[in-house]
Amino acid sequence: MARAHQFQQQSPLERRLQFCPAEVQRKWFARQFDLARDSGLPVFLHMRAAAADLLAIVREKHASHHFSRGVIHSFDGTLEEAQSILSLQGLCIGNNL
C-alpha cells in the first residue's frame, strides 16, 4: 500500500489579492517554517506575485535548517526565480499555466 505524504497546511504569500497587508503576510509566512522545523513536515507554500519576498524568506530559512523539503505551488515567477528556488535542495515547484 502506498504511503500517504504529509504536509503542513498551505502557507500563502500572495500579492495579487490584497487580503491582508504585506508585512502581516511576511511575518506569518516566515513563522510557518518554525512549524516545519518542529514537526519535521515538508512546507507547502503558495506564491503569487511575491517572488522576491518568498525567495528572501525561503533562502534564510533553508540556510538555518528550518525545513528540508517542500513544494511551492501557484508559482508565477520568472525562469531565473524558478532556478533560484530549485537550487535549494528539497524544493519543487508547481505553476499555473
Shape: globular
Fraction in beta strands: 15-25%
Helix/strand class: alpha/beta
- Spatial arrangement of strands, main beta sheet: 1-2-3-4
Residues in helices, as a percent range:
40-55%
DSSP summary, beta strand count: 4
Q: Return the average pLDDT rounded to an integer.
A: 81
Count of helical stretches? 3
Residue runs with pLDDT of under 50 for 5 or more positions: none
Overall domain count: 1
| Main beta sheet strand tally, sense and closure | 4 strands, parallel
User: What is the terminal separation in angstroms?
Assistant: 33 Å
Q: What are the secondary-structure elements, in order, as H or E?
A: EHEHEHE
Radius of gyration over all CA atoms, rounded: 13 Å
Summarize the structure.
By secondary structure, the protein is of the alpha/beta class. The chain contains three helices and four strands.
What does this structure look like?
The chain is α/β, with parallel strands linked by helices and 97 residues long. It has one domain (22-95). The protein is built from 3 helices and 4 strands, in the order E-H-E-H-E-H-E. The chain has helices at 22-39, 51-63, 79-86; strands at 11-14, 43-48, 70-75, 91-95. It has a 4-stranded parallel beta sheet with strand order 1-2-3-4, covered by helices on one side. Helix 1 (22-39) packs parallel to helix 2. The model has no long low-confidence stretch (mean pLDDT 81).
Summary keywords:
97 residues; alpha/beta; 4 strands; four-stranded parallel beta sheet; single chain; globular
